[in-house]
TrEMBL record:
InterPro entries, per the entry: Alkylbase_DNA_Glycosylase/TA, DNA_glycosylase
Keyword DNA repair tagged: yes
Lineage: Bacteria, Bacillati, Actinomycetota, Actinomycetes, Mycobacteriales
Protein name: 3-methyladenine DNA glycosylase
GO CC terms, sorted: cytoplasm; protein-DNA complex
Domain of life: Bacteria
Annotated SUPFAM superfamilies: DNA-glycosylase
GO molecular function terms noted in the UniProt entry: alkylated DNA binding; DNA-3-methyladenine glycosylase activity; DNA-7-methylguanine glycosylase activity
Coiled coil start-end: none
Organism: Gordonia aquimaris
BP-aspect Gene Ontology terms: base-excision repair, AP site formation; DNA alkylation repair
Keywords (A to Z) from UniProt: DNA damage, DNA repair
Keyword NAD: no
Gene3D superfamilies named among the record's database cross-references: Hypothetical protein, domain 2
């Protein structure tokens, strides 16, 4: 086990900052402890590793295990937003000013692991979260290795990039993933995504939405916009203008905040206006029955 203590020089809301990396409540690679700790298992440049950290209100105390332990501890401040600059966002109206006030402690962190963010983003393409999370759980539990350290038996390190291409067709089917997303992930294994995270849309099946979802997490891009998302344009429109809008309307509303548009979106997701629920929820499909 390796350890590190780090004192953030600014307010930090840990869950608001790292929560987007958790793929559902049953994510085998990301767990919240009852004591307020965060547990994360990931394949680093040095191999598999587990990182856990918690705050006493001032100091972040981190512990890590496995070949990737040192890398995870060195990267921990960036994961918690050390390279982020919230002051780059200058509110232009009272609505955004109130969002900034309520979101104090929210940082845009980065994992510096592009593949680890890309695969779940592809799984989440054009489906409800429950469907994507189910597939992620199955594939990581089936093909990930046990996370190093004193972790629950169910916690796993997701497979490295090269291993995803070797998953047989029938296992993708058992996970509930249809051939289109399977082929997209397999095709993506041919690109060194860690070096070329700015070229993801060159991959077949990877569009602007998938690129945005990946860059938000992997490189902490404060400006990328989730064009094509089912919910976000509505939330942005209702919060900033009081009306539901489409992608074009969202881009127009965010244009004055170019350079910080993702920060606005993150704040809106946590503290913005919620639309009234009407009608049935989207159906969770199950390709395992086909």
């Amino acid at each position: 086990m390796r350890t590190r203590d780090w004192v953030p020089p600014w307010p930090l809301d840990i869950r608001a900052t790292v929560g987007l990396h958790r793929r559902g409540s049953g994510d085998p690679s990301f767990v919240y402890g009852r004591d307020g700790s965060v547990w994360r298992a990931v394949h680093t440049p040095d191999g598999p590793g587990t990182l856990t950290f918690r705050s006493d209100g001032t100091t972040i105390s981190g512990r890590a295990w496995g070949p990737g332990a040192q890398w995870l501890l060195e990267q921990m401040p960036d994961f918690l937003g050390a390279r982020d600059d919230p002051d780059a966002l200058v509110p232009r109206d009272d609505v955004v000013r109130e969002l900034v006030r309520r979101a104090e402690g929210l940082r845009i962190g980065r994992t510096d692991r592009v593949w680890a963010a890309l695969v779940p983003a592809i799984l989440e393409q054009k489906v409800v979260g429950a469907e994507a999370f189910r597939a992620w759980r199955y594939l990581v539990r089936r093909y990930g290795e046990r996370a190093p350290g004193p972790v629950p038996d169910t916690m796993r390190v997701p497979p490295p990039q090269s291993e995803w291409a070797r998953i047989p067709n029938w296992e993708w089917h058992r996970s509930g993933i249809e051939p289109v997303r399977m082929r997209t992930i397999r095709g993506a294994t041919a690109l060194d995504v860690e070096r070329h995270h700015d070229r993801l849309t060159l991959l077949r099946g990877v569009g602007r939405w998938t690129e945005a979802e990946t860059r938000i997490r992997a490189v902490g891009d404060p400006d990328v916009v989730n064009v094509g998302d089912y919910h976000i344009p509505k939330l942005v429109g209702l919060t900033l203008a009081g009306v539901s809008v489409d992608d074009d309307g969202m881009l127009e509303l965010l244009e004055p905040y170019a350079g910080q548009r993702q920060r606005i979106i993150r704040m809106v997701e946590r503290h913005g206006v919620r639309p009234e629920r009407r009608g049935a929820r989207m159906t969770v499909r199950d390709y395992r029955e086909f």
